[in-house]
């Protein structure tokens, strides 16, 4: 017996190749981790999948993840693989576990671990050493990294509410350059959070210039997504324009009822910038609720005034799990305290590691943003090991396919797939990913276009989607028969040229 020519042969599926081209029936052959052929394929394969009636697409790229630490704690990353996600972009919102000096470790203990999860051991210092640590855990999916401004700033100068000194700036630039040289995709900022909020625009331009020098992006959780939305979008555009870095505005939204409809003005700002040659793109998740650290929206227990306690749900905490799934007004009732005191007590007792889900967006804004020609999909999933994380962690990609493409007809299935594959691969410079063509890496998702759906809810968020029977990463199955399985086939992706 001779060796089979192919590792996997996917027969008779409807290939949606990621470019936006109309689907067509074709076989897909995989060998040595790459796509060997697309078309009518003859030849033996070690494994043959009958994909009749199913869609065969490039694996999805989650451009906005917080899976940096989850990749170490749970390398299978089952909640993403089950959605058809084969690459996660990490290091978003200025947050990440490197460069890991004493101050950075305190930064984690003071609340960041509520978002990213607990780090068992900081077995690295620099950004590049952290990427090596991820590589060594053999993750199930591919990972790419942004160099996080908040972590760079804390490591260099602590929690200082002022501009960096010349020395501190030099330290940040050197650490950033080290990460970029090690393959980082760009620089991320979280300007709503401490310490990002302490940075003036000039500091960010200077750092974005370093990223741009390596061909990297500037990716931003902008300063204010509520009544300051338009100025914050203008600031992001200015940083791109003056630094030369392409700009990605993360999880674009108009937060809080008073600001609903503002995306009708923010999106034209992006169009105008693009018209004068600034490369600006956006991402979004397909839900009307947001989620972040409670400490960021309720400093000292006092909720940002535009939010109502009844609109804020406690998603996860460290210790007192009875509060998970409860709204802040209910927490106050349980504690028999006024809302502000109850919120402060919760934050104190949980050492700030409280994640909240906030019901603060309008459907009109969400669908308007998703339809914008530059909008790709980023889950912003918060991989809390406990509690009730926002359902976007388990449901983002199937919800776009099932709800927004199939049911709401926001766009065609081919267009939905393009926004999850070739558009992010081109924007984030991920070479030979995001397209189903001969020679590309064999990141593949096989799904049922009639059945694909998110089943995760706010009440019961830890549920795999339906209608996604197979997912492959670099030619290896990471979902088989609808079940995520450990494979260790993921790679750490460096920025392409
Ligand atoms: Zn963010």
3D architecture notes:
There is one protein chain. This protein is of the alpha/beta class and 497 residues long. The protein folds into two domains: 6-58 and 435-452 and 461-484, Urease, subunit C, domain 1 (Roll), CATH 2.30.40.10; 60-427, Metal-dependent hydrolases (TIM Barrel, Alpha-Beta Barrel). It has 16 helices and 20 strands. The protein has helices spanning 70-73, 78-81, 102-116, 127-136, 149-157, 166-181, 201-213, 229-243, 263-275, 294-297, 328-335, 339-349, 363-371, 392-407, 413-420, 422-427, and strands spanning 6-15, 24-31, 34-39, 45-50, 55-58, 60-62, 85-90, 142-148, 186-190, 217-221, 247-249, 280-284, 289-293, 312-316, 355-359, 375-377, 444-447, 470-473, 476-480, 483-484. Strands 1, 2, 3, 4, 5, 17, 18, 19 and 20 form a nine-stranded mixed β-sheet that branches. Strand 1 and strand 2 (24-31) form a beta hairpin. Helix 6 (166-181) runs parallel beside helix 7 (201-213), helix 7 crosses helix 8 and helix 14 (392-407) runs antiparallel to helix 15 (413-420). The longest helix is centred in the middle third of the chain and has 16 residues, at 166-181. The mean pLDDT is 96. It binds zinc ion. Zinc ion binds at residues 93, 190, 221, 250-251.
